[in-house]
Amino acid sequence: RSATLTIVDQASEGTDIPLTFIEGENVYEILNKLMFSEVDWQFEFDHYQVNNQEEIMVTSVNGYNPVEEEMSWVLKMNGQTSPNGLLETRPREGDAISLELERNQP
After folding, report:
1. In sequence order, what are the residues at sequence separation of 6 or more whose Cβ sits closer than 8 angstroms to the Cβ of residue 85?
2. Which has the minimum average pLDDT: 14-18, 39-43, 77-81?
3. 45, 57 in Cβ contact below 8 A?
4. What is the full DSSP assignment across the chain?
5. pLDDT at res. 39
6. What is the mean pLDDT of residues 10-36?
């Protein structure tokens, strides 16, 4: 399967990365594969529990962690904020996946 990952950085500039994945893989698995195939992209993750279920969020992209600016990396699928985390989100052929910086809500 194939999809596109867009990283929208702190300058609001987007970089498109073509992805290939196996049907059924989640976004966390896809990002981990990307790190081992493309030396230009590094991701760091935070693992936590919500309602006794593991959740994972991206905390850093290529060494940039936006926490001091009160921002977070937000997962979007086809232009919409994903209602699910990295573990539950399983893209389909042709999906547009993005990680975008957004200001944290108070």
Report:
1. 55, 56, 57, 75
2. 39-43
3. yes
4. -EEEEEEE-TTS-EEEEEEE--TT--HHHHHHHHHHH-TT--EEEEEEEETTEEEEEEEEETTB-GGGGTEEEEEEETTEE-SS-TTT----TT-EEEEEEEEPP-
5. 64
6. 93
